[in-house]
Each structure stands twice: as C-alpha cells, then as structure tokens.
UniProtKB/TrEMBL annotation, chain A:
Residues 1-17 have a biased composition (Basic and acidic residues). It comes from Polypedilum vanderplanki (Sleeping chironomid midge). This is RNA methyltransferase. Belongs to the methyltransferase superfamily. Residues 1-22 are annotated as: Disordered.
UniProtKB/TrEMBL annotation, chain B:
S-adenosyl-L-methionine binds at residues 75, 101, 125, 176. This is U6 small nuclear RNA (adenine-(43)-N(6))-methyltransferase. GO terms for molecular function: methyltransferase activity. It comes from the Eukaryota. One of its GO terms (biological process) is rRNA base methylation. One of its GO terms (cellular component) is nucleus. The keyword Ligase does not apply. Its EC number is 2.1.1.-.
Length: 263, 429
C-alpha cells in the first residue's frame, strides 16, 4: 500500500508529536547519578575537595573508624577521603551499578600508582564499593539494624533521595543512619537546599508527585534529626564560611557540612 | 545436593524472620537490605537449625549450645541417599534403622521417623548429657514408640547392647562419625593441596566428650563398625557411614578390599562448598549387589589435560607464546615437531612460580629498585620445580591454534598448570 504525501500529512496519527511533559531522556539520571559529576564540581583541574579539607580538621572522627559513604558516585571523594583520613574501613554505596563500576575502576587506577605511599595503599585496600539502595523496599527490615559505623557520610544525596522516595524515604534514611551508628558516632550531612529541587522535579511523573507532596523541607532536617523521632543529641556546622568564600567553588556547591552526634 | 533435598534452595530468611522472633533477633541486614546470618556464631546457627526443623519438618528440637549443631542439608542428603538405597533393594516395609552416635539432637532418627512414620529407629549414644537431650527431643515430638534410645555407656562394642535389647534383624545403619582425630585438626583444619584454602565460614565446634570420643578419628571409628559387621554379617542388611574427609574414605575402601569385601557403594554429598562422602556395604548379595556398578573408577586420578583454542595465525601465536614463556623464566625443551602439520611438542620446566601475583611482584620490584638493597627474590630459595607437557598445533578446520597443557612431574602444586594456561590466555589478548 502506498500513501500519497498529502494523505500522510493529514492523517491524524501523524500529527505533531505529543509535547513531552517530562524529560524522559534524563530519567537515566533520576538519582543525581551523573557521570561527570566531579568534573562539574571541581572544574577541569582536579584539586582537593574543599569538603575533605574541612574534614581533615576533624580527623579524629574518621581516623581508624568504620565509615559508611552513602551515594558515593564514581568514588573520587571516597578514594581521597580514605587516602587523607586513614579510616579503618569504608563501605561506599551508590544506587547506580555503572557508577560503582566506575568507582572500582578508579580505585584500581589509584592503587596501580607505584609512587603511592604504603599506608595510603593500605587505606585504599580497606575501601569496598557496592551497588545498593539504602532506602530499603521492605521498610520493616530496619528493626534488625544494629550499630556498625562510627561515621556515616551523606554528601549531596538528600535531594535525590527526597525526590525519588519522598518524605517517607528521607525519614527512613535518617532513621536507618541513626540505628547504624555506634554511640558517639556522627552523621556528616551535606543537604541540598530546597530551592534546587524544583529544577529536577520534572524528571518524571513519580518525582513530580513526590516533589509536590514534600512537607519536610531541608531547612527542617536539623530539627527533625534532633527530635525524638530520630534522636541525635547535638549538631554543629563543620564548614567555616570563610573557607567557602576563599574557595573558587561554583556558588551552587556552597553547601555546609553539618555534623550530628549520637550519644 | 540431592534432587529431593528441600534445601537445594536456601531457606527463605525473610519468611523465617517474620515467623520466628528468636530468628529475627539473630539476623542482621546488609546495606542493600539482604538478610544475613553470622554462620560463625554458634548461637545463630543453632537458632536457624531449630527454626528450620520447626518450619520444614514440624519438629521441635532442643539443641544444647555446647554440642555439635547438626547441619540440615547434609543430614538430609545422607537420609535421601539411604532412601535411594532402600528403594534400590525394594525394601518398603518393616524397616528398622540404627543411628550410631545420635548426639544430643537425635537428628537422623527424628528426621527419618518424621519422613517415614512406619519405620522404627534405634538411636545409640554414649554421652550422658547427649542421652538426656536426645530423650527430651524424642519426648517433645512424641516419638517414644518409634525411637528407642540405647545407652552405650561402658560398652566397648557398638552393636552389642542393641542386639541384646532387640535381637531382630535390622535394615540399615547410619553413622555420622566424629570427623576429627584431635583438637589440632579441628582448629587448623585438615590439610589441603595448595595450603591456600580459607577457613570454613561456618562455625564448627564439638563438645569435649565428642572430641575425646574420636581417638583415631573417623577412620578408626568406621573401622570399628566394619569389624563388628564382619561378625554380625546379615544381621544388618546395609551398613553405612559418612566420612568428613575423602582420604579416610579411600583408606577405608582399601580396608574393605583387604577383607575381600566388594559389595559396597560410595557417594559424595555436596552442600555448597562443603563436601562429605559416604559408603555403604552389605553382606546380603541377593538383596543388594553393588559389585557390578561400584564406582571405583571415579576415584582414580585422570591425567588432567587442559586445552584451549585461539583464533589466530599459527606462526604469530606460536612465537608469542614462546616469548611469554621465556619471559616467565620457564625452560623450554622441544620434544617433537612436525613443521608440515604445524605440530610442536615441548616440555616446560619452571623452577620458580613467576606467573602469579605479577602486579604485587612488580610493586615490590619497584620498591627494591629504589632502595636496591636486595638481590634475590625470596621465593627462589625453596627447592621447587614443575615439569609440564605442552603441545601446540594448527587446527584442521579453521584458522585457529590448539593448545594442550598437562602436568608431568614436579613438586609444585598441580594448579600451576591451570595458572600458566590462564596466564597465556590473559596475555595473548
């Protein structure tokens, strides 16, 4: 069967393609699992992450401690963290298996460096990268959670957990972190401000719905974490605003590192 | 795993955790939400076993913490094999089983009766404490009519008390002998070929009485059963025992052959990474005749020839491989060649393992170069060598090259053959 050109153009099915409501092509990065994240964050010339510099001032929380890193992306921060702060062990997770693959490759590359000092190599050998979704599908499993870490890093992931899993997910995140921390253990939280949520809210219908339903805003995280529902005893800000000013970081990355202590 | 073993698929920890709070108290959750159990913790294993017995067999069993915790998949494999043997001889009725060294759990007897309510079991035990628990466990499950507990205290013979109690013929005996001959064997683990095998992940703890009981290890114990069986003959139709160590099984087979007993059969129980073996022998040839299909051959060592095919030109591959081998400081000796058919046969001799842990060695080498204090590598000091046969020839059909490599002699582990082939594979890419 042959269509005439006119017929084709007039047929109702061939009308203009429906207007895309969501940027479906970006659905692949719905968890903020960007491939070139650190490049964007640091610019082309790689230098020490400002957050690591800050954490170095408080190395007593990390040296010889068991660490969990939630949302490690391609692992560059995790790797440098281990090298600089000499933790006892680091379990670094990300929801994106491809990023975990990249992280493992990055770790291999780093380890292959012959000039690496022995103790840094040893620290690298204590890193484990694993693909995992920290927000468990079966929420009841949380009751079996036991203290196992002295510090948990949660750097620039709350937005993605919030958008993908809603208030319920973010609350689960905090509850699980609290349960996994030993006494005197710390949560290092770098939350993204709510103002940045909107831009990503239209990734897909689910995320949009979650976005609209958000009641627990990032500004309220601190109060929530210190409330009886979670139970952290104290919080303070690790980031010195002066350091941030001096750094040439893009403005969007001027986020404070907050510390929450479990007593 | 036996095809009828319900633990072919591991137990569903999630269901167990919801149903049994005592199990829920033992589990921990990994970062991705997988439910895990610490198999190194005796108490956790005990609770798991109890919950599985309850859930899958409706058996209420008390297991004292200081005694051996029976692993269910293995016990079931053994039981199912016994079922197979009885099926093979078409024994269906009047089954009387003997459970030698039933232990505190009384596990074989309980499971066998649960699975075959018409059978009757005689459970033999020497340890006072074990007897107490076994009795309790029989009571709990209301099997007092079905399982007779025989006290072996003060008895040197295995079957004597039993036949004093009930002189009728018995159908079979099962035995899970104490595997280890000494505490050392228990702690250090049995020897293994490469010395690199990891410690078992599960806990393995036997009570002191059980360890004392094991003088001479399982081999001596099964020999004792065998010696008594020579007198009792057909009073028991099928004698059987498990072995925790293949070497002991092979030794036991030589003992059987020495006594000209050919009517026996062996099997292998595989549960994950744990292998166990069992043997059954019989004096009743009308009932059970294994002589035709004894699996003797299974245990003979085959020459292990590894082969590999490479899709590439013969000449280039040939020279590349020779190059690789000489880089590894392996001595090549040409044994046979046929230029026309493109067939070469070599003998490879290595005096030192140069092919594993390359990266680590490079690192160490770099460090040494910097400080330049050492001259000799440590591994060269040991007197080790390995000689392998190596054939390379052009495939008839396609433009590909066939490799054959096999162990000939030498003191190094046979795994080296595989390692060298792997090295060639990796480095030809």
């Amino acid at each position: 069967m042959v269509y005439l050109k006119d017929e084709l153009e007039n047929s109702p099915e061939m009308d203009k393609p429906p207007k895309k409501k969501f940027k479906t092509d970006k659905d692949n990065f719905r968890y903020g699992n960007y491939r070139n994240y650190y490049f964007k964050r640091f610019g082309a010339e790689s230098k020490t992450d400002i957050r690591l510099e800050i954490m170095q001032y408080h190395s007593e929380y990390f040296k010889d401690k068991q660490i969990l890193d939630i949302g490690c992306n391609s692992g560059l921060v995790t790797i440098n963290f281990a090298k600089l702060l000499q933790p006892k062990s680091v379990l670094a997770i990300d929801i994106d298996a491809n990023l975990i693959d990249m992280a493992r490759k990055n770790l291999q590359k780093e380890k292959a460096n012959f000039n690496l000092p022995e103790e840094q190599l040893a620290a690298l050998n204590r890193i484990i990268f694993r693909k995992a979704n920290y927000i468990l599908t079966d929420r009841t499993l949380i009751e079996h959670e036991r203290p196992q870490y002295e510090a948990i890093l949660c750097l620039s992931v709350t937005k993605w957990i919030h958008l993908n899993f809603g208030d319920d997910g973010i609350k689960f995140l905090f509850k699980r972190i609290y349960k996994q921390l030993h006494q005197n253990g710390v949560l290092i939280l770098e939350p993204q401000p709510f103002s940045g949520y909107k831009k990503r809210s239209k990734l897909n219908a689910e995320i949009l719905e979650n976005y609209k339903a958000i009641k627990l805003k990032p500004e309220q995280f601190e109060a929530y974490l210190l409330s009886d529902e979670i139970g952290f005893s104290e919080s303070w800000c690790m980031t010195d605003s002066e350091i941030l000013e001096q750094s040439n970081l893009p403005k969007g990355f001027h986020r404070p590192l907050q510390v929450f202590v479990k007593r | 795993m036996h095809p009828r073993n319900i633990y072919k698929n591991p137990p569903d920890f999630n269901k167990l955790r919801i149903e049994y709070p005592e199990f829920a108290a033992k589990v921990h959750i990994d970062v991705d939400g997988k439910i895990k159990l610490n198999f190194n913790d005796q108490e956790s294993v005990r609770v798991l076993t109890q919950c599985c017995l309850m859930k899958d067999f409706d058996l209420k069993v008390e297991l004292p913490i200081d005694k051996l915790i029976p692993t269910l998949p293995l016990r079931l494999n053994y039981i199912l094999w016994i079922e197979d043997l009885l099926n093979h001889c078409s024994i269906k009725e009047n089954v009387f089983g003997i459970d030698i060294g039933t232990g505190a759990s009384c596990i074989y007897s309980l499971l066998l009766i649960k699975m075959h309510t018409q059978w009757k079991m005689f459970a033999l035990e020497i340890d006072k404490e074990n007897l107490k628990y076994a009795n309790k466990n029989i009571n709990y499950n209301q099997f007092d009519e079905k399982i007779v507990l025989i006290n072996q205290e003060g008895s040197n013979k295995i079957f004597e008390n039993l036949f004093k109690h009930d002189s009728n013929h018995k159908t079979f005996c099962v035995c899970n002998p104490p595997f280890f001959s000494s505490k050392n064997e228990l702690v250090l683990g049995s020897e293994n070929r490469t010395g690199k095998r990891k410690r078992p992940r599960s806990s393995y703890k036997e009570s002191s009485t059980e360890t004392v009981f094991t003088e001479g290890g399982e081999l001596e114990f099964v020999k004792k059963i065998f010696n008594e069986s020579l007198e009792l003959k057909e009073k028991v139709e099928i004698y059987s025992s498990m072995f925790g160590c293949k070497k002991n099984l092979l030794n036991f087979i030589t003992v059987l052959k020495h006594h000209d007993i050919k009517n026996f059969t062996t099997t292998e129980f595989v549960q994950g990474k744990t292998f166990r073996w069992a043997i059954a022998w019989s004096f009743n040839r009308n009932l059970l005749n294994f002589e035709d299909h004894t699996s003797k051959k299974k245990f003979e060592k085959k020459p292990n020839v590894l082969t590999h095919t490479i899709d590439d030109e013969f000449e280039t591959t040939h020279s590349k491989i020779l190059n690789l081998l000489s880089n590894l400081k392996i001595n090549l000796k040409l044994i046979n060649k046929n230029e026309k058919d493109k067939y070469f046969k070599y003998e490879l001799e290595a005096l030192e393992n140069t092919w594993t842990n390359q990266r680590r060695k490079r690192r160490a080498g770099n460090k040494l170069d910097e400080s330049s204090t050492f001259h000799e590598s440590a591994s060269a000091s040991q007197e080790e060598n390995i000689v392998m046969g190596f054939e390379i020839y052009k495939s008839n059909l396609k433009s590909s090259v066939n490799l054959k490599i096999f162990y000939l002699r030498g003191t190094m582990s046979r795994d080296c053959v595989n390692q060298i082939l792997q090295y060639i594979k990796n480095n030809l890419k």
